[in-house]
């Protein structure tokens, strides 16, 4: 039973243009994300899932240069892109890693891979209150295939609704997560200029060009320096409101 970590990346972005190739400590955001993902231990593949558009050629090149596998697929439909990637690599279980989440925690990714296989679930999400950007989702490819059969839209950026709200799947939350990873006053995802400033400050403090500082150590630093989370936390409600507006469940 093969497990893969899928890093979902497109080069274009409206709120923070070219964020994937912006540089921190001389390395692109994508390089730093791939290095973070490669610290997880429970995966057969780390796959950068991008599109077939020429604009994403650079994404594929950077991913290959940094030792990740690459799948190029559907531009708009993230679920179909994942399904086709899973078919190409013969994957059974997937944990997702958004290309925006530079400090997504490898330990939690490993836990997601373990739990989706051991608990008989189709889909696992982050528990309420987990730091935004610390963990996203885990799911079986069998459930992913079913979702792609029943959906009637290619607008699947907010893909979770097809697993959670159809009543067809066994859904759970990531369990046994340490309290240090829960904090609603810390935002760790890259969508706005303030987010880029937030990440830059942390990378510069730790001088972590390998992006290998454990999340618990980063959180401890932020607790000692509350002015840094204040750089971007005011963007969180706007971020959540935008996600809500883009969430649509359209079935066949």
Automatic annotation (TrEMBL):
GO cellular component: cytosol
Organism: Selenomonas timonae
Organism lineage string: Bacteria, Bacillati, Bacillota, Negativicutes, Selenomonadales
Family matches, as InterPro entries: Cytidylyl_trans, Nucleotide-diphossugar_trans
Coiled-coil residue windows: none
PANTHER family recorded: 3-DEOXY-MANNO-OCTULOSONATE CYTIDYLYLTRANSFERASE (PTHR42866), SPORE COAT POLYSACCHARIDE BIOSYNTHESIS PROTEIN SPSF (PTHR42866:SF1)
Protein name as catalogued: Acylneuraminate cytidylyltransferase
One Pfam family hit: CTP_transf_3
């Amino acid at each position: 039973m093969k497990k893969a970590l899928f890093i979902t990346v497109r080069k274009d972005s409206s709120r923070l243009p070219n964020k994937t190739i912006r540089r921190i400590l001389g390395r692109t955001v994508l390089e730093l994300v791939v290095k973070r993902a490669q610290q997880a231990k429970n995966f057969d593949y780390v796959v950068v899932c991008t599109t077939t558009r020429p604009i994403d050629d650079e994404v594929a090149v950077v991913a290959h240069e940094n030792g990740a596998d690459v799948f190029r697929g559907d531009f708009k439909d993230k679920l179909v892109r994942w399904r086709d990637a899973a078919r190409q690599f013969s994957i059974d279980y997937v944990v997702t890693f958004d290309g925006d989440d530079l400090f997504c925690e490898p330990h939690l990714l490993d836990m997601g891979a373990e739990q989706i296989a051991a608990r008989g679930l189709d889909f696992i999400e982050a528990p309420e209150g987990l730091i935004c950007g610390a963990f996203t989702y885990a799911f079986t490819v069998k459930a992913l295939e079913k979702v792609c059969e029943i959906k009637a839209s290619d607008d699947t950026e907010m893909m979770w609704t097809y697993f959670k709200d159809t009543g067809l799947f066994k859904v759970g939350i990531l369990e046994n997560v340490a309290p240090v990873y829960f904090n609603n006053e810390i935002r760790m995802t890259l969508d706005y200029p303030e987010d880029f400033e937030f990440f830059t400050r942390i990378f510069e403090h730790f001088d972590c060009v390998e992006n290998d500082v454990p999340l618990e150590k980063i959180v401890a630093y932020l607790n000692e320096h509350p002015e840094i989370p204040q750089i971007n936390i005011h963007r969180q409600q706007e971020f959540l409101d935008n996600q809500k507006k883009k969430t649509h469940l359209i079935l066949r």
